[in-house]
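This section describes the prediction task in plain terms. A model, or a person checking by hand, is given the sequence of a single protein chain and must write out its three-dimensional structure as a string of tokens. No templates, partner chains or ligands are provided. The sample shown here is typical of the held-out split.
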Amino acid sequence: MSTMIVSAATSKVTVENEEVLGLQSLEYVVKRRQTDIETVGTGERWGVATQLVTVTGTLRVKSLNKKLDELLYKPVPTPFNLVANLKSGETDIVTLSFEECFLDDKTFELAANGVGLTVYNFTATRLKEEPPK
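The expected answer:
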């Protein structure tokens, strides 16, 4: 399998079909909780029992994002969908669909020689990776 270089400049992330302007980065982690099933008398595992799969992510955005702020400050948290279309140049590589997302928190940093940077942390119920159409 060849290496595909994903371009941040041409890739696009949307929240509820609205592009996240000023996006600097998208990071995510998928973890599967599993428990070893031990064998008796050998000191080895017989297999694993899988349980909960968790998806957590981070969006770093230049300045602020009004849509994400609205979702974060709603009195009753509302799930949203986040879609990342990853590209290599102009070629579609993969579409990541984060479903039933909730914002956990945000932090803001303003450096003396730069612009504001807001970091939004979220969780998702599931992540679907789809090849280009």
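For orientation: The radius of gyration is 19 Å.
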